[in-house]
From TrEMBL:
InterPro entries: Glyc_kinase_flavodox-like_fold, Glycerate_kinase, Glycerate_kinase_RE-like, Glycerate_kinase_sf. Pfam families: Gly_kinase (PF02595). Its EC number is 2.7.1.31. The keyword Nucleus does not apply. This is Glycerate kinase. It comes from Streptomyces griseomycini. It is an enzyme of class 2 (transferase).
Length: 389
């Protein structure tokens, strides 16, 4: 049988072992639930099929859950939420490697009743999470950043780890990016000394600088409730923050401000770079941490996906990373998604043979979100008929 082109029905050979390595469908299914539903649909058509589930994440929300699904231990700790109220956040630990997700402490989902606070939300709790991982003996810290409620340049995180940011009257600046406009002096000499003894990896799917037209306030501030005036205030405040830090720690502070990843998660990437973090694309880091390579070697067919397959997917999102690695290993890849906004030729260039959208079976997007699980199982049945027959 001739091999079908993208959008065709069957592969040349039937797959015998399937690896499901998909991200969450944001707002409807976690990555673990996606893997469960896909596995159930496949096995309904091919009973006894060997399916290995490896939920993935790109450093944003869901990163800890993916690590736990891969065998890490979930550790919970009480930390400050973005508005200072105490929340229970989790990190993941295996051996001396910890996966810390800033959204667990400082994410949008931590805001009470969806109240947005672009000027005052703080990353202090993210610093407390990192400190908890250090207390647990972690020597490698994978710091996944994304989904933040904050635009404070990581100032809150640094303060939780021992830095001091003071106004002209000697009092601490107010929490959040807005408060940095009053910053008069910065002192990083009190940072936890253990930070100099560990490997800190900044894992993110964005490479924005701290400020400017492509910086954190301009690009991501509106998602966090920032008005055009707020964006201007935050950009000016973070520019001032970097300038004061330049006086405190030298030219490296200015260099970090324009480095890839500095603008990640409201600028917490900048704070992480000041701590000595090395920046790597989030999905590449997580595939290493989760043990993707050996799982890929065992697979005949790889199924990846996320809620929306679109242009953003191609720029560092989990499915693109999975597909690139699978293609390099000579493995065939198909994708599942809620919504598909990429033509077949772009999917093909990304290494994805074919994509299956929930909207193919249920055009009503609201119903797709509400009933994503059952529809995804039916979608997986289609994959089984097309690729596992």
């Amino acid at each position: 049988m001739a091999d079908a082109a993208v959008g065709g029905t069957r592969t040349t050979q039937s797959a015998r072992r399937v690896l499901v390595a998909a991200d969450k469908f944001k707002g409807s299914l976690t990555a673990v639930e996606v893997a469960d539903r896909v596995s159930a649909g496949l096995r309904r058509i091919v009973p006894g099929l060997v399916v290995e589930a490896l939920p993935v994440a790109d450093g944003g929300d869901g990163t800890v859950a993916a690590a736990v699904a891969a065998g890490f231990e979930r550790r919970e700790v009480r930390v400050a939420g973005p508005l200072g109220d105490e929340v229970t956040a989790a990190y993941a630990l295996r051996g001396d490697t910890a996966v810390v997700e800033m959204a667990e402490a400082s994410g949008l989902q931590r805001l009470p009743d969806g109240v947005l606070a672009p000027l005052t939300a703080s990353t202090y709790g993210s610093g407390e999470l990192l400190r908890a991982a250090l207390d647990a003996g972690a020597r490698t810290l994978v710091f996944g950043v994304g989904g933040s409620a904050t635009t404070d340049g990581g100032a809150g995180m640094l303060a939780a780890l021992g830095a001091r940011f003071l106004k002209a009257d000697g009092e601490p600046v107010a929490p959040g990016g807005g408060g940095l406009a009053e910053l008069a002096s910065a002192d990083l000499s009190g940072l936890d000394p253990r930070l100099g003894e560990v490997e800190l990896i900044l894992a993110s799917d964005v490479d924005n600088p701290l400020t400017g037209p492509k910086g954190a306030p301009a690009v991501y501030g509106p998602q966090k409730g920032a008005s055009p005036q707020d964006v201007e205030r935050l950009d000016a405040a973070l520019t001032h923050f970097a300038k004061v830090l330049e006086g405190a720690v030298g030219p490296v502070a200015a260099e970090y401000a324009v480095s890839s990843g500095a603008g990640a998660a409201g600028g917490i990437g900048y704070g992480a770079l000041l701590l000595g973090a090395g920046f790597r694309p989030g999905i590449a880091v997580m595939l290493d941490v989760l043990g993707f390579a050996p799982a890929l070697e065992r697979a005949d067919l790889v199924i990846t996906g996320e809620g929306s397959l679109d242009q953003q997917t191609l720029h560092g999102k989990a499915p693109a990373g999975v597909a690139a690695a699978a293609r390099a290993a000579g493995k065939e890849v198909v994708a599942v998604c809620g919504r598909l906004a990429l033509p077949p030729e772009e999917l093909g260039r990304a290494g994805i043979r074919r994509a299956y959208a929930l909207t193919d079976l249920e055009p009503d997007v609201a119903k797709c979100i509400a009933d994503a699980g059952p529809i995804l199982e039916r979608t997986a049945e289609r994959i089984a008929r097309d690729f596992l027959g």
